[in-house]
């Protein structure tokens, strides 16, 4: 479908004799937040590593924004070029570097002479922080990242994905170990992704977070997708029961 920014079909992955992912069929629509749920070892991390180019698969097809990908040679650089950005739990930020330098880390803007265009990077960083409604110490683009709160760090990492015009943003446990106020801030950033018509794949163990922001829930167990649910068709309690039932059937 034209609205699908990500299409996966028949994806299989082995680690030696271990069949880590089994015949994965998955799609992600533009402007959709999809929560990927399941216990540890269900295959969630392996799947997002394949989508983000960290790992390669032996079988299957992958399409990003309508472009077919050679899954055996797919890598992180190619994923980014096609609009895939991944925000890991750590945020992958330079602790001693300033906010604006972190936004362009590894992908600096260059002037005609090939030097880093600091003026333009600072301008774009200031505009982004205003859009993200950063306040206090986090609103200063010269603030070192180690002075930011956990929620601000996650927001900065998500903002980096926005800055480079990602069409698919993968978030790996973005609210772990955050206070309630910080969690709310990060979930608001996720809702902003939807408003900008970006697709978001959210990996989380927190059902409250998932139910607040996700439009669809995909359940994995032992390397397989065992169930999918739309938020429109169930309550949070019903989702929790359905998740337990789906994983229990695979036991």
UniProtKB/TrEMBL annotation:
Pfam families: ABC_tran. Transmembrane segments: none annotated. GO terms for molecular function: ATP binding; ATP hydrolysis activity. SUPFAM superfamilies: P-loop containing nucleoside triphosphate hydrolases. Coiled coil: none annotated. InterPro entries: AAA+_ATPase, ABC_carbohydrate_import_ATPase, ABC_transporter-like_ATP-bd, P-loop_NTPase. Keywords: ATP-binding, Nucleotide-binding. Residues 6-247 form the ABC transporter domain. PROSITE patterns: ABC_TRANSPORTER_2 (PS50893). The keyword Ligase does not apply. This is ABC transporter ATP-binding protein.
């Amino acid at each position: 479908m034209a609205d699908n920014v990500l299409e996966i079909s028949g994806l299989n992955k082995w680690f030696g004799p271990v069949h880590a992912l089994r015949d994965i069929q998955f799609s992600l629509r533009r402007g959709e937040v999809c929560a990927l749920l399941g216990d540890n070892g269900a295959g969630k991390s392996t799947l997002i590593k394949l989508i983000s180019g960290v790992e390669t698969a032996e079988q299957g097809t992958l399409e990003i924004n309508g472009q077919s990908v050679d899954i055996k040679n797919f890598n992180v650089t190619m994923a980014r070029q096609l609009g895939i950005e991944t925000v890991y739990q750590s945020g992958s930020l330079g602790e001693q570097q300033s906010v604006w330098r972190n936004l362009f880390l590894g992908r600096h803007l260059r002037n005609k002479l090939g030097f880093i265009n600091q003026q333009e990077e600072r301008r774009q960083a200031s505009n982004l922080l205003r859009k993200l409604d950063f306040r206090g110490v986090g609103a200063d683009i010269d603030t070192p990242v180690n002075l930011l709160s956990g929620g601000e760090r996650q927001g900065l990492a998500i903002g980096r994905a926005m800055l480079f015009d990602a069409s698919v943003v993968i978030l790996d446990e973005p609210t772990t170990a955050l206070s309630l106020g910080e969690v709310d801030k990060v979930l608001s950033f996720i809702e902003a992704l939807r408003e900008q018509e970006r697709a978001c794949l959210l990996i989380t163990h927190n059902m409250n977070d998932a139910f607040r922001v996700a439009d669809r829930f995909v359940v994995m167990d032992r390397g397989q997708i065992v169930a999918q649910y739309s938020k429109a068709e169930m309550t949070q309690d019903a989702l929790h029961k359905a998740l337990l039932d789906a994983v229990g059937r695979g036991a």
